[in-house]
């Protein structure tokens, strides 16, 4: 182990830090704060500015003894001092400290308030040009002495953040602080060199690109310049280039966008008091102040970020259009105790697509009921059900003074067709998608393309696909795309295959959807790659089984509808959107374009990416579980597999489906199919426990409720099964047989057919299951009499050998005696493979007449070998000869 590894971590009560991607003001304010907290440890958060990084490495580390957070013992920290920001999201490098019990926080900042601001014991905030200025005035009042190096560093912070006193955010206090620092030897030449150094050839090229791409936009009388640069690597000193651009072109307001790798960096500068670039960058996840700000954005294109900026600018510069001028008032509402039929009647009478649901005898909006959902529910015979069971409970509202951008974001981006307008808790009006459309026709420039669903679902993830899939699969996808183009149609990879690409999980089960003839496409695919096709004409699907063994499921884009609750689907031709809409959950309603030219574009109509980020399982519509209750089991399976959480609305719909006893309408075959999938999961017990918690085990059959004893055995079964699986032994155990033994433990023999019939076992499966249970019961009795050290190992072998592997695993989990479990383990991993060297031919050569005596002799030989009495073939032949004589004599005596 190296000396560096052995070095103990620093115990310190006080840590001083600043925001990530630090500038000079952040660095200087930290050093200034160290004068107020002399025993503190300075933790540098890192910077992306090249000149700052070089200066820090060459000078500041040496002079001010900065540390990395990894050098600190987090538990020892009692006080956290944060400079030049108050935002929690901008100090992720010290985030673990925020969990310290009783942690005190002191803040020093000159940026505007944000929703992400930390709560603090002490907060010093002033709207001055820099944070360094704020702390410098405190040092002035304290009579603090500085070295010339310290004064120069603090001066750098003030000069940079005030634009060398050229920004309109500069205050008299900034000049006073600089004058005070000059008295301690602040070196203005050093500051000038660091802030105005000569540009390199590469920087000149980048500046030229920014100049070439600059465009002017008149937004309500204010001239704003947008420019951008695109490169696969980080551009150092991007902010310096923007500063040079402003000076060269005499620009008042500029937004510079730099695509660097997979991120968009935004640098914003403003000399116009009407444009607060800090507020706009903060709304995009960044920070800064009115004159200078920045943001770093992931998972968006340059065009999408530009669109967002335009919207924020329109909203900020001319925010006069508010909800009050758009809403329809008074709203038509319905009370939450009314039925679904009542809701249909109200919406039909007033020609509404949605209606707000209010709490009985109040105007408090508690939900939104959709006409399509209510109509469907009535067609399923649920007209008398309370509409509160199927209304949407998760929705957004706005107040009468809300600006246009928020309305657009909710209606266009979040796809909430109707937006309730509230005053306090009471609904006073509504804005519909139609209302918004009519307004936007008047001012189309207000529509941000990034908020249009068409744009949001077309993010290209080709690089992710290429990084996370094997080359053979990528080649297959591209061949499929080429064939689709030749057929003048579109093909998509869909469902779990796409979901797992985003999750970074291995999944080579490829499902394709063709906006055309899926069966014909499958035939062309095997013509191209070799293989055969299994077609299912009724469902317009096919399976292409390629020569390399890869299976590809191919479907025609289709819409499934259900004639009655829990029915099998009826299939109609449709588009990719409708094909995705028929799927179970949003996270599975994803498609990936494969056609050349659009390869890798992600199609996401229903917010799947958002739900994946939020780790949420959410159904696509309120009647999902009514139409197919097996989706409840799939929801649990996905929740446990991915570590997600079933969404609140979806959980409520699950409980409603169970109350309606919809599981009783499901065929045993479909229930058993889903149970088998659950029992194939890595952690089936977690799924079964969740089913028990929700009352699903009882809903499937009352005899399947998980008792305490069953849960205990299932815990052991999971361990035993996973242990066996890791050994890669043959034969492989079928997990559903293993776990069905666990969940039916304690069910009386005469009651077992009730369970097997409910789960639609075939007669053969039922017979084999009953025989297996009987064998297990007999073996349990025999094992109780088997004693380690007293009973022969061969006896254990002959107890276990006739039992199928699933039964042996159950016995191992079921046994409470450690020595029996240990010996069953020995049996599974080696003993059961014991073979004797003597065969029937050897017995014939010994002159023993064939017959039942062979079985008896071979059994005795196996017993002797296991117990170590006949290890070699010679010993076994000798024993066989003696056994044949003894058995013959016994037969003679019995005949006598």
From TrEMBL:
Keywords: CBS domain, Magnesium, Metal-binding, Nucleotide-binding, Nucleotidyltransferase, RNA-binding, Transferase, tRNA processing, tRNA-binding. Belongs to the tRNA nucleotidyltransferase/poly(A) polymerase family. Its cofactor is Mg(2+). Residues 327-385, 391-449 form the CBS domain. GO terms for molecular function: metal ion binding; nucleotide binding; nucleotidyltransferase activity; tRNA binding. It comes from the Bacteria. Pfam families: CBS, DHH, DHHA1, PolyA_pol, PolyA_pol_RNAbd. This is Polynucleotide adenylyltransferase region. The lineage of its organism: Bacteria, Pseudomonadati, Thermodesulfobacteriota, Desulfovibrionia, Desulfovibrionales. SUPFAM superfamilies: CBS-domain pair, DHH phosphoesterases, Nucleotidyltransferase, Poly A polymerase C-terminal region-like. GO terms for biological process: tRNA processing.
């Amino acid at each position: 182990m190296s000396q560096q590894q052995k070095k103990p971590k620093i115990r310190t009560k006080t840590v001083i830090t600043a925001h990530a991607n630090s500038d000079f003001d952040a660095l200087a304010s930290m050093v200034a704060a160290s004068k107020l907290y002399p025993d503190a440890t300075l933790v540098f958060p890192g910077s992306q500015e090249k000149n700052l990084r070089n200066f820090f490495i060459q000078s500041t580390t040496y002079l001010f003894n900065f540390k990395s957070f990894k050098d600190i013992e987090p538990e020892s920290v009692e006080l956290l001092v944060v400079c030049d920001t108050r935002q929690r999201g901008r100090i992720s490098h010290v985030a673990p400290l925020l969990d310290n019990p009783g942690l005190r926080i002191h803040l020093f900042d000159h940026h505007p308030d944000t929703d992400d601001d930390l709560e603090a014991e002490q907060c010093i905030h002033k709207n001055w040009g820099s944070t360094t200025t704020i702390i410098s005035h405190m040092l002035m009042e304290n009579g603090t002495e500085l070295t010339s190096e310290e004064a120069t560093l603090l001066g750098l912070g003030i000069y940079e953040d005030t634009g060398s006193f050229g920004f309109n955010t500069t205050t008299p206090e900034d000049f006073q602080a600089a004058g005070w620092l000059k008295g301690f030897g602040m070196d203005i030449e050093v500051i000038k060199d660091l802030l105005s150094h000569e540009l390199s050839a590469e920087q000149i090229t980048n500046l030229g690109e920014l100049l070439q791409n600059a465009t002017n936009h008149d937004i309500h009388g204010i001239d704003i310049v947008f420019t951008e640069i695109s490169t696969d690597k980080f551009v150092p000193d991007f902010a310096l280039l923007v500063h040079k651009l402003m000076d060269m072109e005499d620009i008042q307001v500029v937004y510079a966008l730099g695509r660097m790798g997979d991120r968009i960096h935004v640098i914003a500068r403003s000399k116009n008091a009407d444009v607060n670039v800090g507020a706009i960058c903060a709304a995009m996840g960044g920070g800064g102040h009115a004159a200078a700000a920045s943001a770093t954005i992931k998972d968006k294109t340059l065009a999408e970020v530009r669109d967002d900026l335009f919207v924020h600018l329109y909203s900020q510069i001319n925010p006069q259009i508010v909800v009050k001028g758009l809403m329809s008032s008074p709203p038509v509402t319905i009370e939450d105790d009314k039925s679904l039929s009542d809701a249909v009647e109200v919406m039909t009478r007033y020609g509404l697509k949605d209606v707000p649901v209010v709490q009985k005898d109040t105007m408090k909006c508690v939900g939104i009921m959709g006409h399509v959902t209510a109509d469907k529910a009535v067609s399923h015979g649920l007209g008398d059900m309370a509409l509160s069971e199927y209304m949407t409970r998760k929705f957004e509202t706005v107040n009468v003074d809300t600006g246009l951008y928020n309305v657009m974001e909710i209606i266009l981006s979040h796809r909430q067709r109707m937006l309730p307008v509230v005053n306090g808790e009471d609904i006073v009006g509504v804005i519909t998608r139609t209302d918004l459309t009519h307004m936007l026709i008047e001012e189309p420039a207000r529509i941000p393309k990034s908020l249009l669903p068409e744009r949001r679902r077309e993010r290209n993830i080709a690089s992710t696909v290429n990084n996370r899939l094997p080359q053979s699969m990528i080649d297959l996808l591209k061949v499929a795309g080429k064939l689709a183009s030749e057929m003048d149609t579109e093909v998509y990879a869909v469902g779990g295959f796409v979901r797992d690409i985003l999750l970074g999980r291995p999944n080579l089960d490829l499902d394709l959807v063709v906006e055309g003839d899926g069966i014909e496409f499958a035939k062309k695919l095997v013509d191209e790659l070799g293989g055969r096709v299994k077609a299912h004409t009724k469902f317009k699907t096919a399976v292409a089984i390629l020569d390399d063994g890869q299976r590809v499921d191919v479907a025609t884009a289709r819409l499934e509808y259900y004639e009655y609750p829990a029915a099998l689907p009826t299939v109609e031709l449709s588009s990719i959107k409708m094909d995705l809409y028929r799927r179970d959950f949003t996270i599975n309603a994803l498609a990936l374009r494969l056609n050349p030219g659009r390869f890798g574009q992600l199609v996401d109509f229903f917010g799947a990416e958002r739900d994946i980020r939020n780790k949420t399982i959410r159904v696509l519509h309120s009647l999902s579980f009514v139409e197919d209750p097996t989706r409840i089991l799939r929801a649990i399976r996905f929740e446990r597999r991915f570590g997600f959480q079933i969404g609140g609305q979806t959980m409520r719909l699950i409980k409603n489906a169970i109350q309606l006893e919809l599981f009783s309408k499901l065929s045993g075959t479909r229930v058993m199919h889903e149970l088998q999938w659950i029992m194939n999961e890595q952690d089936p017990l977690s799924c079964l426990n969740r089913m028990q918690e929700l009352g699903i085990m009882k809903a499937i059959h009352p005899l399947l409720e998980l008792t305490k004893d069953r849960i205990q055995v299932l815990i052991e079964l999971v361990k035993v099964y996973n242990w066996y699986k890791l050994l890669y032994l043959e034969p492989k155990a079928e997990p559903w047989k293993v776990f069905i033994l666990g969940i039916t433990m304690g069910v009386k023999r005469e009651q077992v057919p009730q369970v097997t019939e409910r789960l639609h076992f075939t007669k053969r499966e039922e017979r084999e299951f009953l025989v297996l249970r009987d064998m297990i019961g007999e073996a349990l009795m025999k094992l109780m009499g088997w004693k380690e050290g007293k009973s022969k190992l061969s006896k254990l072998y002959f107890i276990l050998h006739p039992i199928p592997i699933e039964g042996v695993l159950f016995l191992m989990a079921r046994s409470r005696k450690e020595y029996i479990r240990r010996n069953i383990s020995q049996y599974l991993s080696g003993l059961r493979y014991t073979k004797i060297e003597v065969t029937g031919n050897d017995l014939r050569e010994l002159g023993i007449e064939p017959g039942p005596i062979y079985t008896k002799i071979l059994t005795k030989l196996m017993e002797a070998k296991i117990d170590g009495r006949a290890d070699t073939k010679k010993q076994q032949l000798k024993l066989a000869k003696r056994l044949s004589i003894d058995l013959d004599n016994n037969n003679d005596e019995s005949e006598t």
